[in-house]
Amino acid sequence: MNTTKLRWGILGCAAIAEGSVIPGIQASETGIVQAIASRELDKAEETAAQFGIPVTYGSYEELLADSEIEAVYIPLPNHLHKEWTLKAAEAGKHVLCEKPLALDAAEALEMVQACEAAGVHLAEAFMYRHHPRYEIMKEVMRSGEIGEVRSIHGTYTYNHADENDNVRFHRHMGGGSIYDVGCYPISAARFLLDQEPHAATVKAFFSPDHDHVDMMATGLLEFPDDVAVTFDCAMWASPRNTLEILGTLGRIQAHSAFVSRPNPSCHFFIVKDEELREVVVPYENPYSLQADNLANAIWGVRPLRFEPLDAVKNMRVIDACLKSAGTSQRVEL
């Protein structure tokens, strides 16, 4: 096994691949982007020329058949995650798959089991949690500086409602704000608390102009020890991207919680005794860190920071949120 550079293939030319993940892999310590595939060869060639990718394919199958490719990144629409993860595993490729991993927990578990059976690693592409600031936040919580945690509130909203061709506005493709951005505060709360919620209550706005997907949702997750986690997610609302952890003695505030750009957006604040203290966190590219973590797991240097079953657990919460939103009832997990 080549332990100098992991050879990546990209299945599709999605905006997240071109704007963040391909540059992140190329800037990583461990990876190179060896090939890219698209169902339109011209598109693959255009993207390859932009990023200096040496090999292009006009189908995903051709890329998976390339023996030089060791790992693939899947940025396809949500309803295609399972299909191409299973095909990648069958081809012996390690997989980094965009969030949410699947359309439901049952699909996610099938994907995890297929990768385990094939002897390949599977990682969900929640890049934000690879940035060191989340571990620093967690250390602040453990230290007792903000006291006992009483609640967490996360927001991730944006307004792209006028994009009629957006795949996120199609129900059969796994569209909706809970799938797209609500998954971030759900994941963050589970990570920060090291616990799973036992109930979810969600109120959502389903838009008839957008195939009746949830264009806005507000949720309450009930965690052990009476800790409440609330979140807003939207694809048709004013942009927000924040996280607040409220304790008995103080609180942590992140003003750009899930998008880490160069300083100062990756800093966060501690508010205590009416004083505001900025915690300076050096910028690191979370997409590069994400790629390095998978490569080092493949090489046996260190394990994945987030095991594949974590994605299954996150999907169980998303399942409950979607059920609650659809029925207007509290759902127990």
Automatic annotation (TrEMBL):
Coiled-coil spans are none
Could you tell me which residue ranges the Gfo/Idh/MocA-like oxidoreductase N-terminal domain spans? 6-123
Domain GFO/IDH/MocA-like oxidoreductase residue range list: 136-252
The answer to keyword Kinase applying to this record is no
Q: Which keywords are on file for this protein?
A: Oxidoreductase
Q: Into which family does the record put it?
A: Belongs to the Gfo/Idh/MocA family.
Question: What protein is this chain from?
Answer: Dehydrogenase
Q: Say which species the protein is native to.
A: Paenibacillus eucommiae
